[in-house]
Amino acid sequence: MQIRVKCSCGEDCREWAVLELQGVVEVQPQFQDRLHNLHIGLLCRPSSPETYTFTIGYHELTGTKLPLKKPLLVLKKTKRSEDGSDDDACAAGVELEVIGIIRHRILFKTRPMALISKPQPAVKKSAQAPFAPAALEN
Amino acid sequence: MDPPSPGCTGAEAVLSLQPNSSIPITYHPLFGPHDDLILLEVDQKLLPDVLHQRVTVRGQPDEDAVLCTESKTYAMKSVGTSNSVFLIPPSGQYNTFESPKCSSENYHDPLSVASVIKIATGNMELVEVAPRLDKLRLLLSQNPYRSDEDIEMVDLEEMERTNAGLYRWNDLIEKVQASDYELRIGLRALSAVEINGYWRIVDEKYMGTILRMLLHNSVLNDWSMSLLNQDDVVNMLESDGFPRKLADHCLHIFGNKMTEGAITSRMWKLDERKVCVHFAREILRDGKRKMKKFMEEWVRKVPEGMAASFDILEGEVLIEKLGAETWIRAFSVSSLPYNPAERFSILFKERAKWEWKDLQPFIRDLNVPGLSAEGLLLKYTRRTQPTADAEPVFSAR
């Protein structure tokens, strides 16, 4: 079968943002089933160019914004409904559409630094989502 | 630290975050595994092809998908990551009109944050590969066009109904993992022709009959074999009872169109090599022959004015010495698979050891992106050289 990769955005594909960090962010048990809209952390850009901090609970990560050598396209796979009268050759009814492009990522490759003193005022204390210790190994 | 400017949310807010400012990152109201979102790494060169909808993904459910541009084929490899890759869509995409369920301090108003829709576990990478044309040959070999088809007027509809190995262009691009350009080259390499909308290989014996008639006509009409007028040839063959399309195809298979600058010429020159190879294959169709006998018969068969010189049979035959006799038999590179592993496996089954000059005609058409001819040999053969000045010999790894 053949799936034509659709793209309605032409050259002005909307850019998505990526935050990449090592390990995993674990949500505290009481929020496990209520993730939607839950605060993860605060992304700050201090004055120095292209340096970022990401504060998650009492941990602070430092990272940089890097351009991707090869961009990533965000594709969305949709199964077309059966009643579609489209007699297109895609027998399986799958469509792929470019819905965005990623040209940069903000990469946090340092180990998190524990914030001993009072964290940034913007960080909600109770919203901490600490790293699972096991996940910090890489 | 300043809060983000109002109205600036989502990916834009992250990407354009100014020095001395900050933005809260949250889980998106629609956060989830979103298996329908795929990240595809695309080289800058390929980007315009994708953005202008010139690429397709091809493959059957049981095949690894490939991505085809107009001229090239790429394998799609999935690459995992152990990092957490937080994907943040631009504002407006994935809109929800749902307000946060709990407006406690742990939750934010989605209008002043950047929210993560999915944590990606990896992405797809593209690796240029050779088109998978072995399947094309397999499909077209199911039902070659034979002479009885135009004589007995085989009912096309009946054939279509029974789906007896007939493929239109659109069927082929559904089934063969190759770009349009590569598929066209593949069809030409197989000497396929489009008859009544179906791409067909023409039975070799039938093609031979048409060629013999063409040669016969050129003698009768005193045509020069290096200056054949397409219309004269096709009209004549048609009056001899051959379909126009096949008469035309005969010129394409055994001849080369003459080019006179930019003007499309109607003049053809028969290709000596193609014609001679055809007669050699015809002789060897029923099995191996003693070399001497073969050469006598071959020289007799080729049309006058053409020289049956042995070296044009490179890649078409194998020579064997059995006792005092030298035998020749048909072994055509065009019948071998394009897949290099399969190709070498067949070659080494045929012969355990190959000298370079014998091996080369059977592998020179292999084209594996990213692998040179030397690379191919290193990967699939073992090279031995008894002494420094001896010819290297290749055997299976």
TrEMBL record, chain A:
InterPro entries, alphabetized: Ctf8
Any one of the GO CC terms: Ctf18 RFC-like complex
Alphabetical GO biological process terms: mitotic sister chromatid cohesion
Coiled-coil stretches noted in the UniProt entry, renumbered to this chain: none
Protein name: Chromosome transmission fidelity protein 8-like protein
From TrEMBL, chain B:
GO biological process annotation, one example: DNA replication
Record-linked InterPro entries: Dcc1 (IPR019128)
Keywords (A to Z) from UniProt: DNA replication
Oxidoreductase as UniProt keyword: no
Keyword rRNA processing set for record: no
GO cellular component, one term: chromatin
Top-rank taxon, per record: Eukaryota
PANTHER family for the chain: SISTER CHROMATID COHESION PROTEIN DCC1, SISTER CHROMATID COHESION PROTEIN DCC1-RELATED
Similarity comment: Belongs to the DCC1 family.
Protein name: Sister chromatid cohesion protein DCC1
Species of provenance: Pyrus ussuriensis x Pyrus communis
